[in-house]
Amino acid sequence: MTGWSGDESLAASAARLLGPAHPVAAVALVGPHGASTATIGTSTDADFEIGSLSKPITGMLYRDAVEHGRVAPTTALGELLPLAGHGPVADLTLESLATHRSGLPRLPPRMQPVRRTWALWRHGANPYGDSLAELLEQVRHIRLGGTRGRYSNLGFQLLGHAVAAAAGARYADLLPRTFALDLWAPSTVAELRPTSLTGATGRGRPRDPWVGEGLAPAGGIRTTIGTMSSLLARTLDGSAPGVSALDATTSLSPGIRIGSGWLTSTQHGRTITWHNGATGGFRSWMGLDRDASVGVIVLSARNRFLDPAGFALLREHTAA
Q1: What percentage of the chain reaches a pLDDT higher than 70?
Q2: What residues contact residue 33 under an 8 Å CB cut-off, 6+ apart?
Q3: What structural domains and CATH numbers belong to the chain?
Q4: What mean pLDDT value characterizes the chain?
Q5: Do 138 and 108 meet the contact criterion of CB atoms below 8 Å apart?
Q6: Whole-angstrom Cα distance, residue 150 to residue 60?
Q7: 296 has which bridge partners?
Q8: What is the pLDDT of residue 288?
Q9: Dihedrals phi, psi of 111, to nearest 5 degrees
Q10: pLDDT tens-digit profile of 142-168?
């Protein structure tokens, strides 16, 4: 397990399952006997981008707002965000956004995703620098699909900002205030901390940070392995705000059900609640076996697929 430090058992598992493909990474395990962490190429106080792992956290913010009566599942976006004259998007309910059943596309065509994707892969540029005002303009008269499951970054961007508006706050401020944890969502590169890692492709090419006010609820959170471990512990024991977001309520795709952002599937006969994330230079995975009260987080500053390693780590340490 050369290069790994921290808990010996966890480090040994991580070294074997992640291998040399993830030279800058951190893992955490939380179970009935406590929490442990291990890292390679960095320290436990380093900030990682967690990408779409932001979505289930936004789902928890939404469920917390429902439980405190600030919003209802039937609350329409237009009641919370300035969408008058924007067309049918104003009538979408928060619940439809939280379960990926709003009919919104993955990204708004007016943000020119093809051009931005080219800039990302050619130059490593951040494809998401939009303000909230720019995001709202991009959804003006956007065309909706049906109500079947359709994964949408855009839907979770709007959900998070709507929930924040219901609390009279910016998303970036509501996030740490609600969880009392160091979860943060920088809007600009200037807001990055000295402990913020630079992500890279699988071949080691550096990528610009993914920052932007509009992006935050769907993919803009940065945090440390220690903070994620604390969130996981509180989620497992039921004390985290909005923990009902983990309860699967509807089908998203074959074999996968969804609560509010959180996904649930069966792996090797066990029911696992999980989500993953990716940015230009980072990958993340978090999974919970709620019946066994065990969970795992994997964060990497390399954009290489993590899901098999995450599921395997959870399975090994649940069996142990």
Answers
A1: 99
A2: none
A3: 4-319 (3.40.710.10)
A4: 95
A5: yes
A6: 20
A7: 29, 287
A8: 98
A9: -85, 0
A10: 999 877 889 999 999 999 999 999 999
Report the 3 state secondary structure along the chain: CCCEEECHHHHHHHHHHHHHHCCCEEEEEEECCEEEEEEECCCCCCEEECHHHHHHHHHHHHHHHHHCCCCCCCCEHHHCCCCCCCCHHHHCEHHHHHCCCCCCCCCCHHHCHHHHHHHHHHHCCCCCCCCHHHHHHHCCCCCCCCCCCCCCHHHHHHHHHHHHHHCCCCHHHHHHHHHCCCCECCCCHHHCCCCECCCEECCCCECCCCCCCCCHHHHCCEECHHHHHHHHHHHHCCCCCCHHHHCCCEEEECCEEECCCCEEEEECCEEEEEEEEECCCCEEEEEEECCCCEEEEEEECEECCCHHHHHHHHHHHHHC
What's the rounded mean pLDDT across residues 183-207? 96
- pTM (2 d.p.): 0.96
Instruction: Give yes or no for residue 52 having a pLDDT over 60.
Output: yes
d(CA 77, CA 216): 17
What's the confidence (pLDDT) of residue 1? 43
Structure tokens belonging to residue 295: 């969970």
Please give the average per-residue pLDDT across 210-232, as a whole number. Answer: 97
CA distance 96 to 146: 11
Q: Residue 114: which pLDDT band, with cuts at 50, 70 and 90?
A: confident
Instruction: From residue 133, give the alpha-carbon distance in Å to each of 126, 136, 164, 213.
Output: 18, 5, 14, 9
The percentage of residues in the chain with a pLDDT greater than 90, rounded to a whole number, is 89
> What is the distance in angstroms between the CA of the first residue and the CA of the last residue of the chain?
19
